[in-house]
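Module 6 notes. Inverse folding takes a fixed backbone as the condition and produces residue identities as the prediction. Think of it as a translation problem where the source language is geometry and the target language is the twenty amino acids. Below is one complete input and output pair. Work through it position by position during the lab.
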């Protein structure tokens, strides 16, 4: 047998190679422990945490409207908190100033709404909490800002809710901003009558819409106006805010006809003459308008100053200034009234036209004598009653001068509709 002897030099080389190999293994093993293995461990732990959280999360899903960050939000119907797969346990709504907005939670706990109309140009915050069937809680928060006055419009309307008016009373709406999308706005307005009469709107300009039937309202009927303008964009970036229902009643059918030539007024109710009253209409220099006019206002006493309607003396003062005109009822925006007259001689009523365009009836100063012709007519008239003037040398009053759209044909009226 051959005996092999390893020299010290060979032994050292072998040890060095083994040491290098072992060192390589150790380095490789150390790299795996401090890198990929550690990262994998972290991901595994995070996944376990997420899984555990998901298993413990509430199933309740809360939705808040308007959406978080909304601007130009409605002040009426938009705000609502709802929940699915759970019930609401708490909802708080506050302004940024800290004022609390009261609201009502539905009996089934599925929804919540504020009890009051919101304020314009106000930022609100809503915090909501809900629980699912296992009692696990969910939370949601939102903040939004309501529409500003600069970005909203309203319609001032007549007649008033709950009033009783004459058969000639149209629904007249005056908007506080010009309307460019008339169709959108008119589509948000409906007027119906218990009489079943068709009602059509007519735009006189960008800010006035009147609505009426073809013939006068039927006496004794009930008329309902619905404004569904909340959120309607009437002009670029300008939204409606009204959500309102108005109801008024129509009284007996009273129509009074002033014959400026004969200087008399015949009053009819439900087609029957109940009184004939001597009058004094406008003089030849200042005749009374012809046409169908509607009483729009009533004043037991009022001041009439000629300067306000263009009747002035050389000094610029009114040709007349009577501070206590009795039993005055407005027939036009431009200043036509039917009223009592205590300053004229009794002999003029029924015999001479002497006024600046109004229709005068005999009366006394103070408006306290119910037996005077003017007092009788005032006490038996309603806002919305019709006064027809005929046989005057003046022209027919323009339809938009007061509530006097009855002076348009039905074809002309409907041509002004955007429905």
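Target side of the pair, the amino acids:
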């Amino acid at each position: 047998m051959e005996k092999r002897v390893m020299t010290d030099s060979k032994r050292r080389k072998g040890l060095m190679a083994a040491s290098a190999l072992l060192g390589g293994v150790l380095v490789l093993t150390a790299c795996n422990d401090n890198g990929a293995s550690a990262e994998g461990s972290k991901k595994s732990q995070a996944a376990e945490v997420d899984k555990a959280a998901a298993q413990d999360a509430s199933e309740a899903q809360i939705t808040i409207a308007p959406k978080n960050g909304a601007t130009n939000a409605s002040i009426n119907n938009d705000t609502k908190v709802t929940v699915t797969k759970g019930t609401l346990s708490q909802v708080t709504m506050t302004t940024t100033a800290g004022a609390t907005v009261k609201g009502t939670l539905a009996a089934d706990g599925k929804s919540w709404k504020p009890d009051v109309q919101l304020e314009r140009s106000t930022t609100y915050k809503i915090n909501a909490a809900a629980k699912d069937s296992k009692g696990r809680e969910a939370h949601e928060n939102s903040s939004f800002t309501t529409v500003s006055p600069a970005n909203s419009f309203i319609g001032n309307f007549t007649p008033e809710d709950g009033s009783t008016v004459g058969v000639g009373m149209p629904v007249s709406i005056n908007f506080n901003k010009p309307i460019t999308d008339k169709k959108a706005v008119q589509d948000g307005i409906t007027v119906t009558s218990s009489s079943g009469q068709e009602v059509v709107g007519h735009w006189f300009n960008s800010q006035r819409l009147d609505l009426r039937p073809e013939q006068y309202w039927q006496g004794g009927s009930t008329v309902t106006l619905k404004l569904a303008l909340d959120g309607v964009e009437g002009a670029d970036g300008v939204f409606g805010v009204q959500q309102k229902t108005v109801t008024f009643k129509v009284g007996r059918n009273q129509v009074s006809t002033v014959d400026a030539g004969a200087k008399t007024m015949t009053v009819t109710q439900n087609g029957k003459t109940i009184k004939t009253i001597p009058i004094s209409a406008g003089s030849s220099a200042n005749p009374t308008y012809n046409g169908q006019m509607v009483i729009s206002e009533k004043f037991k006493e009022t001041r009439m100053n000629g300067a306000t309607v263009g009747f002035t003396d050389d000094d610029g003062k009114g040709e007349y200034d009577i501070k206590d005109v009795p039993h005055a009822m407005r027939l036009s925006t431009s200043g036509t009234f039917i009223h009592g007259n205590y300053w004229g001689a009794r002999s003029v009523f029924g015999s001479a036209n002497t006024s600046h365009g109004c229709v005068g009836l005999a009366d006394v100063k103070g408006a306290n004598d119910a037996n005077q012709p003017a007092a009788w007519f005032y006490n038996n008239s309603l806002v919305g009653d019709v006064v027809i003037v005929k046989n005057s040398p003046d022209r027919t009053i323009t339809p938009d001068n007061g509530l006097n759209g009855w002076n348009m044909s039905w074809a002309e009226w409907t041509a002004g509709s955007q429905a």
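Reference fact for the lab report: Residues 1-33 have pLDDT under 50 and may be disordered.
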